[in-house]
Amino acid sequence: MQLITVKPIQGGWAVNPFEGLPLMFLTGGRAEQKARELAQRAARLGVPTEVRVHDGSGQLVGQIPYYDAEA
User: Fold this and answer.
1) Which residues of the chain fall below pLDDT 70?
2) Closest Cα partner for 16 from 37, 39, 35, 42?
3) 3 state DSSP class of 16
4) Mean of pLDDT over the chain
5) For residue 10, what are the CA distances in angstroms to 7, 39, 43?
């Protein structure tokens, strides 16, 4: 399973996809939305993916798995 994380950084939020460079956002909500979009795309391509969301203090507050809909 691939992993995408949403974590606070100085001045905003980072989405760290399993491939590529981190994406930066000003709000946690927008960062989480993008992480979910990336995970849904990966799942449609047959790549099981999990989004892990951290709060402003860095604590893990959510884990959302995405699987291929045809599996």
Assistant:
1) 69-71
2) 35
3) strand
4) 94
5) 10, 24, 30
The one-character DSSP state at 27 is S
Q: State how beta strands 12-16 and 60-66 pair.
A: unpaired
Host H or E run for residue 37: helix 28-44
State the greatest distance between any 2 C-alpha atoms of the chain, in Å, as a whole number.
Answer: 40
What single-letter DSSP state applies at residue 19? S
pLDDT at position 13 is 98
Q: 69 and 57 in contact (C-beta within 8 Å)?
A: no
What is the model's pLDDT at position 69? 64
Report the alpha-carbon distance of residue 56 to residue 20 in Å, rounded.
23
Report the length, in residues, of the chain.
71
- By the 8 A CB rule, do 27 and 15 touch? no
